[in-house]
Write a structure and sequence with these properties.
The protein is an alpha/beta fold. It has helices at 14-19, 57-69, 99-110, 141-158, 172-182, 203-209, 229-241, 255-264, 275-286, 292-306, 316-325, and strands spanning 30-36, 43-45, 53-55, 74-79, 115-120, 133-135, 138-140, 162-165, 189-196, 245-249, 269-273, 310-313. Helix 8 packs parallel to helix 10. Ligand PBG is lined by residues 119, 121, 123, 131, 166, 202, 205-206, 274-275.
């Protein structure tokens, strides 16, 4: 057979495949989302997310020593708030003596070199389980933005390096940037959940934090999975309002959105490999139908290929270990 074009030549051995590989993944690309709860010296495994736990701040700090040794320097914190501390305005989110400030301060004391990312949304603190303030069954935009901005300011005062609004209210990035700057927190970055979809893949996370909405769904603020133009609009607005990095969430089912946003974004793009995506791989591995390490690696490479600079993933320690071995 006479054939000039034989693409397989560039795949004939590992060294050539490495030479022509277009995508790399490094531990420094990973952000580890971790769950925190009150108390001391306690780890509570999360049923819906095998291998993940809620940690009390002291234990979390110890674990971070381990994870740091693997090269993980970025942590997104998600506090589990006791039901008795929740109210309709999420007041606990502003408590200077709460779980989140305790945790941030402790981690920054013990590990000054790591980056702490604080989530800005009311759901873990709200008795309604929504990201904003609810009145008569509606999620109020502007009232929520005011509270969320106060929340971001508090997080900056407590020592967060980044604030990450995940609430999808209109105008929150601009409002947060303005308030941070007024208080001289010009150095605190904003990681904007810009294209955050109303997704079933957050199920295990809501289980972990017991933060599921008490009524209805999040479709009036999180995006409709049928749209991508809207994702570009949201992203461009967030960049204009001052986002330092924009994020697509969930990750795997939305790789097309990551790629489109990467094309138009003047700031780096992050992808959130969410709890449901994690649970799917874990379930398939438990069934004996997938090789876990290979599934994790291929998933991470997919995010990088699509254009993500940073990946938030519960697989961060496992991935970091894998990269060590290679
Ligand atoms: C809170 C928030 C959620 C996640 C991150 N921040 C849940 C939600 O919007 O309902 C989900 C993360 C995951 O599923 O891993 N606004």
């Amino acid at each position: 057979m006479s054939q000039i074009q034989r693409p397989r030549r560039n795949r004939k051995n590992q060294a050539i495949r490495d030479l022509v590989s277009e995508t790399q993944i490094l531990t420094q690309n990973l952000i580890y989302p971790v769950f925190v709860c009150e108390g001391n010296n306690t780890e509570t495994p999360i049923k819906a997310m095998p291998g993940q736990s809620r940690w009390t701040p002291d234990l979390l700090s110890k674990k971070i020593t381990e994870w740091k040794n693997l090269g993980l320097n970025h942590y997104a914190l998600f506090p589990q708030i006791e039901e008795s501390k929740k109210d309709s305005r999420g007041t606990e989110a502003l408590n200077d003596n709460g779980l989140l400030p305790d945790t941030i301060k402790r981690l920054k004391d013990d590990h000054p070199e790591i980056n702490i990312i604080a989530d800005v949304a009311l759901d873990p603190f709200s008795s309604d389980g929504h990201d904003g303030v609810v009145e008569n069954g509606k999620i109020l935009n502007d009232v929520s933005v005011e509270i969320l901005s106060q929340m971001a300011l508090k997080q900056a005062q407590w020592g967060a390096d980044w604030v990450a609004p995940s609430d999808m209210m209109d105008g929150r990035i601009g409002s947060i940037r303005k308030l941070l700057d007024q208080h001289n927190f010009t150095d605190v970055n904003i990681l904007a959940y810009s294209a955050k979809y109303a997704s079933c893949f957050y199920g295990p996370f809501r289980d972990a934090l017991q933060s599921a909405p008490k009524f209805g769904d999040k479709k009036t603020y999180q995006m409709d999975p049928r749209n991508t133009h809207e994702a570009l609009r949201e992203t461009l607005l967030d960049i204009e309002e001052g986002a330092d990095m924009v994020m697509v969430k969930p990750g795997l089912p939305y790789l097309d959105v990551i790629a489109r946003i990467k094309d138009i974004s003047s700031v780096p793009v992050a992808a959130y490999n969410v709890s449901g995506e994690y649970a799917m791989i874990k379930a398939a591995v438990a069934m004996g139908v997938l090789d876990e390490d290979k599934a994790i690696y291929e998933t991470m490479i997919a995010f990088r290929r699509a254009g993500a600079s940073a990946i938030l993933t519960y697989f961060a320690p496992q991935m970091a270990k894998l990269l060590r071995l290679n």
